[in-house]
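Task: complex structure prediction.
Instruction: return structure tokens for all chains below.
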Amino acid sequence: MGRVTRKESHAQTRERLVETAHRLFLSDGYNATSLDKVAAEAGFSKGAVYSNFATKHELGLAVLDVLHLERAMSLAAAVRDAETAEERIEAFARWAEDNIGDVGWTALEVEFATSNRHVKGIDQALAGRRRELTAAVADLIEQQATDLGLTLPLPAEDAAVQLLSLGIGLGVQRAFDPELPVTSLVDLLRSLLDRSRPAE
Amino acid sequence: MGRVTRKESHAQTRERLVETAHRLFLSDGYNATSLDKVAAEAGFSKGAVYSNFATKHELGLAVLDVLHLERAMSLAAAVRDAETAEERIEAFARWAEDNIGDVGWTALEVEFATSNRHVKGIDQALAGRRRELTAAVADLIEQQATDLGLTLPLPAEDAAVQLLSLGIGLGVQRAFDPELPVTSLVDLLRSLLDRSRPAE
DNA sequence: GTCTATAAATCGATAGAC
DNA sequence: GTCTATCGATTTATAGAC
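Output:
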């Protein structure tokens, strides 16, 4: 009864495959990484991949989920301890420098999305993830505004779309031109803050 | 002497190949389009492709140049006849709706950039094009500000980076979720305008 | 459930005829 | 300069052994 060895080892295999794919996709790209290499580096063979994922796309989507969770958690953690508005902006600036500035992440998401945009079913999976992510960012923004006692100049959802889109655009361009600074993300946030009014 | 038939037919072949690649890359994607198909649909065989382009990447870059020229011209044309600030914003809004809303363009650029980001030399080619495009948009912004007698709240170059990045981010997300509206581009432009001051 | 072996298909790039 | 034919390398996905 104590040993659920069957299910557990299956889950462990799956997790190690996702971890390995996560690393390889980030460093070499999604298209350039073969399932053979993923399996080998994870210490398995390709059969293990196909017993855990029906297609390469499914593995890709699983990696995207890890990516989203990582970023959401790191962003929330980054602004958690900040108090004043200026402290929060500075915390966000540091997070942006470390995360948007870290080129691989956005490039992978975008490579996967655009390369498979005509694959049936993938677009819906990506659309669902996009909406979740946008809602999560919107929640975070709203929470920050409440904390600071501010009313935003536009709906939190719209602000989230702006910040996410700008981050994607910057990340994509930095993938081939890392000299492009990420400061405009902070500029956008600051302009949102400047145009906010005290909540009544 | 009047007939430069050799050079001309070569240039014509090249042009038709780029046109066909332009169309197929947009509809099916860069990775999913084989050079064989490009050649066949253009009425040539693959040999003609390789006598005009050393690699598939070169053809891809040629298509990106066409894309950039198209967008730059259509944007400049869209705002040309507008007079008041509000008219210009509305002209830009229509352009954004027709262009950023038209999913294929951004997705192609971004698919090419991210899929080949580790191919030696491609990143420099893309970085050069990015800077040209940013400079062109910055020029357009500066010209508009001068026309309206306004001083922008930030350097035109920074505003160009913001608008381009936001456009890329929106275009990418709309590639798999076309319900995402492009209104935040107009919001950003309007906020730039609202924060501008009359030039002395 | 995982491994080995292989199928099946694709595609970029090259060689040589015309 | 373009075409035909083909190479050569890869990769996704499957079939069957263990």
